[in-house]
């Protein structure tokens, strides 16, 4: 339920939209992985059976202490690799998640990788109401998979996705590009994806992060012109095949946009539970501890920051402009009591066609989406 309230500022009445209502989204972090990918800088730990039961106990403790009984509209179990858990461990996790009030839930996603999916786990997920599965495919090219440190191959992907399709139609795959100086590998990857006929894909240009094996091995990013060519190739080919480019990295068939991720991009409130997870509630952004020992001792608290109105408005722009639709001008006014144009100096960007104002939305011109970071920093400067 959305709440509305009124206030007066500069002799004007404002009706304010708030997402302080009683519908929330939930992220749950399972940090365990069976092996560590060469590019990964997420909060993850090699799967070790001896930690899992303790971790799940502490996850339950955290949820019981923090969750206030709100109705839940989306759940996303991410990681790490949630499906690295055994069948019994997954069952325990899903039983914990029953704490939430899910009578109005619209999307319940679990992340997985190719090698840890099996039929028993899929049946269990279905039984517990999971209705969306996101699979870390990353590439169909066996050499690229090796470079990325993934242990599956192309044949595994086709076999597992065929199996997943017996139980789920709402499927996402993650794809990494720009791991190689060869656009033909990307072209083949996109062809294979299209053959699979699944409704959602997240595409990420490989970034060589500090403290990753790729960085340590001296791997360099590909040049930016080729990266741009790859980005445009993906966009054109997927759009030609009826996928909507709805967020800078995400494409979906109609109706299959990720409802959970839209909560982040719309700057709405959500709970995050588990090691290192972020929550955004009542204008407070909090991040749980990243220290597993502390978490296993029941001390989940990390940092928290109350955001002032300026930070919230900037976040609204930064997150909202990831979406091709951009931000809703009326909603911005209702939330902050100000017009976006009165807060940010955007006239030149609108005049020069970098930003487009249309039908109550303000968005980055699709032609310039690739340089969205530069446009956003111009807005803030
Ligand atoms: S499976 Fe995901 S979280 Fe685990 S190491 Fe690989 S990229 Fe990182």
Per CATH, the class of the domain at 20-264 reads: Alpha Beta
CATH superfamily of the domain at 20-264: Aldolase class I
Return the average pLDDT rounded to an integer: 94
What is the subunit arrangement here?
single chain
Return residue spans where pLDDT drops below 50 for at least 5 consecutive residues: 1-21
Shape field: globular
Distance between the termini: 36 Å
Largest sheet: 9 strands, mixed
Structure in words:
By secondary structure, the protein is an alpha/beta fold. It has a domain at 20-264: Aldolase class I (TIM Barrel). Helix content is 37%, strand content 25%. It is built from 15 helices and 19 strands. It has helices at 49-66, 87-97, 119-127, 142-148, 154-165, 183-196, 213-216, 224-240, 259-265, 292-296, 309-320, 329-336, 340-343, 347-351, 372-380, and strands at residues 3-9, 12-18, 23-30, 32-33, 45-46, 71-79, 107-113, 132-138, 171-177, 200-205, 244-247, 250-252, 270-273, 278-281, 284-287, 303-306, 327-328, 355-358, 361-364. The strands form five sheets. A nine-stranded mixed β-sheet has the order 11-12-10-9-8-7-6-3-13, sandwiched between helices. The protein has a three-stranded antiparallel β-sheet with strand order 14-15-16, with no helix packed on it. It is globular. The two termini are 36 Å apart. It binds iron/sulfur cluster (SF4).
